[in-house]
Design goal:
Helix content of chain B: under 10%
Structural class of chain A: mainly beta
Order of helices and strands of chain B: EEEEEEEEEEE
Radius of gyration of chain B: 13 Å
Strand content of chain B: over 45%
Number of helices of chain A: 0
Strand order of the largest sheet of chain A: 1-9-8-3-4
Radius of gyration of chain A: 13 Å
Number of strands of chain A: 9
Shape of chain A: globular
Shape of chain B: globular
Strand content of chain A: over 45%
Oligomer: heterodimer
Largest sheet of chain B: 7 strands, mixed
Distance between the termini of chain A: 38 Å
Structural class of chain B: mainly beta
Helix content of chain A: under 10%
Order of helices and strands of chain A: EEEEEEEEE
Number of strands of chain B: 11
């Protein structure tokens, strides 16, 4: 699986937007971009995924660069409950592919 | 009830003992996975199964074995536990496309 690069940590104020970056310069044409997050003392939780076009769901938005070599997870209004480790993962669309986790970005949200 | 249930939630065991961690799911998914997480690190894949008759090694399978008893059940065994297997263990499921994994709450295992 192709590798991703994320900042180790980020901080945000509550109720402000948060932009979590991810670089994946070696992405292949069949790789989907997945985001998961892990809240303290819990298992990872699916957030969003996409291939080429920007995606929105109730949790977040995913903005994918035109060349697909980077992406940004956008939390529109951070809350204290969004404090977690966010993982950006590339997954090949082939049927045998699995998720390979890196160390992610630890997001701190303050009042 | 949770979609993916892991038992036990916490376990302390002695070096050399055999221990089994269990996972059951109500998602109806064919694919199941076992991951391990060490402090400050991401998750690493131990074993995975794409259906009841399919078992595959992940990146860190040495010292572990698995059994897929049914579509809904996937257990992980440590044949002879050692202290460096102290970690947080997660079970997960996914659909056939490998999208939208659902994880259990984890089992915290301590080997003394």
């Amino acid at each position: 699986d192709a590798k991703t690069t994320q900042p180790n940590s980020m901080e945000s104020n509550e109720e402000e937007p948060v932009h979590l970056p991810c670089n994946h310069s070696t992405i292949s044409g069949t790789d989907y971009i997945h985001w998961y997050r892990q809240l303290p003392s819990q298992g990872p939780e699916y957030v969003i995924h996409g291939l080429t076009s920007n995606v929105n769901n109730r949790m977040a938005s995913l903005a994918i660069a035109e060349d697909r070599k980077s992406s940004t997870l956008i939390l529109h209004r951070a809350t204290l409950r969004d404090a977690a480790v966010y993982y950006c993962i590339l997954r090949d669309s082939g049927t045998a592919s699995k998720l390979t986790f890196g160390t992610g970005t630890r997001l701190q949200v303050t009042l | 009830d949770a979609d993916v249930t892991q038992t036990p939630r916490n376990r302390i065991t002695k070096t050399g003992k055999r221990i089994m961690l269990e996972c059951s799911q109500t998602k109806g998914h064919d694919r199941m996975y076992w991951y391990r997480q060490d402090p400050g690190l991401g998750l690493r894949l131990i074993y995975y199964s794409f259906d009841v008759k399919d078992i595959n090694k992940g990146e860190i399978s040495d010292g572990y074995s698995v059994s897929r008893q049914a579509q809904a059940k996937f257990s992980l065994s440590l044949e002879s536990a050692i202290p460096n297997q102290t970690a947080l263990y997660f079970c997960a499921t996914s659909d056939f496309r490998g999208e939208g994994y659902t994880f259990g709450s984890g089992t915290r295992l301590t080997v003394v």
